[in-house]
Amino acid sequence: MGSVVLKNVCKSYGDVHVIKDVSLTIPDGEFCVLVGPSGCGKSTLLRMIAGLEEITGGQVAINEKDVTDVEPKLRDIAMVFQSYALYPQMTVRENMGFALKMAKLPKAEISQKVEGAAELLGLGVLLDRLPKDLSGGQRQRVAMGRAIVRNPQVFLFDEPLSNLDAKLRTQVRGEIRELHRRLKTTSVYVTHDQIEAMTMGQMIVVLREGRIEQVGSPLELYDRPANLFVAGFIGSPEINQLKGEVTLHNGEMMLRLADGSLLSLPPGIQVKPQQNVVYAIRPEQVNVVSETEQSGALKATITAIENTGSDMQLFCNTGGGSFTSVFKQRLNVKEGETVWLQPRVTGIHIFDAESGQRIACQ
């Protein structure tokens, strides 16, 4: 087992700065997910931990040992790739045991490790098959088995589920979670899928343009996003964002939207009149729908309705822009109708419009 510590890590290709002064500590035994949009630098950062990318500046340490200039094979890590990278002419058994064979371990020990990993992953009956005879999910499990037999200090996963269909992704996702629960090996997992990040990670690192935007547990990022980028990236459907100006109305701080309508702000929010802010609320945090005007509520015209069976989604136009709400109950509403939406006070997030940073309550 081992912690992973990055200190002021940078990566540049000429004048292009891909990773910009990243510092991060991943505790021993943690399952850490690096998430962000395409091109944010998450795979580059993973490859720098692995030693597959030379760092431009800073330091990488694994289990309190500086490995910045250490060869990948000597870092005691195992990597699972998106493409499986299996040898087509070798059986499952031979693929899983190949690294151990190259390390000149005794045959009996190799066999024991391979069979143990195969049992853990449900691959016992497939050990004598070739990769071409396996499904995509089975191939990915072989790739994971090849990593497990090495008993590394750190597992590195580079978007390992990208080539699988939706149903299989969900299944293998669960298998990786169970694998970590059993082995308790420090794991760093890269994905661009925020749902994957939320369901798998104990610790999530949100990246944008080579910088860390926020680090926290899934619920910390969901409930208290540090800025507009994190708020918009985490959560599906995406969080609603309404721009407006703070105004004092009858002794109460309220938000004036573009059409002049007023919306209640959370009590104790540290804002001042004429300040431009972004009012953000997740679609499922809307509490009430009314056909009559409600003071401090949001006037909305329904443009579309989607029923998924378990949920009803309303797509609306409001005085501050488009707005999506999700309800568990089936509402008696129609497209074209005007309704009043009452966001839950505990679900409201206020951000400074200029900096994008979260504004705290007192």
Model description:
This protein is α+β, with helices and mostly antiparallel strands and 362 residues long. It has two domains: 4-233, P-loop containing nucleotide triphosphate hydrolases (Rossmann fold); 240-352, OB fold (Dihydrolipoamide Acetyltransferase, E2P) (Beta Barrel). It contains eight helices and 20 strands. The chain has helices at residues 42-50, 92-102, 107-121, 136-148, 166-183, 194-200, 218-223, 228-233; strands at residues 4-13, 16-26, 31-35, 57-62, 65-66, 77-80, 154-158, 186-191, 203-208, 211-216, 240-249, 252-256, 262-264, 276-281, 286-290, 298-307, 312-318, 321-327, 338-343, 348-352. The strands form four sheets. It has a six-stranded mixed β-sheet with strand order 6-7-8-3-9-10, sandwiched between helices. A five-stranded antiparallel β-sheet has the order 13-12-11-14-20. It has a five-stranded antiparallel β-sheet with strand order 15-19-16-17-18, with no helix packed on it. Helix 5 (166-183) links the parallel strand 7 (154-158) and strand 8. The longest helix has 18 residues, at 166-183. The two termini are 42 Å apart. The model has no long low-confidence stretch (mean pLDDT 92).
Topology at a glance:
Blueprint (H helix, E strand, L loop, with lengths): L3 E10 L2 E11 L4 E5 L6 H9 L6 E6 L2 E2 L10 E4 L11 H11 L4 H15 L14 H13 L5 E5 L7 H18 L2 E6 L2 H7 L2 E6 L2 E6 L1 H6 L4 H6 L6 E10 L2 E5 L5 E3 L11 E6 L4 E5 L7 E10 L4 E7 L2 E7 L10 E6 L4 E5 L10
Parallel strand pairs: 3-8, 3-9, 6-7, 7-8
Antiparallel strand pairs: 1-2, 1-4, 4-5, 9-10, 11-12, 11-14, 12-13, 14-20, 15-19, 16-17, 16-19, 17-18
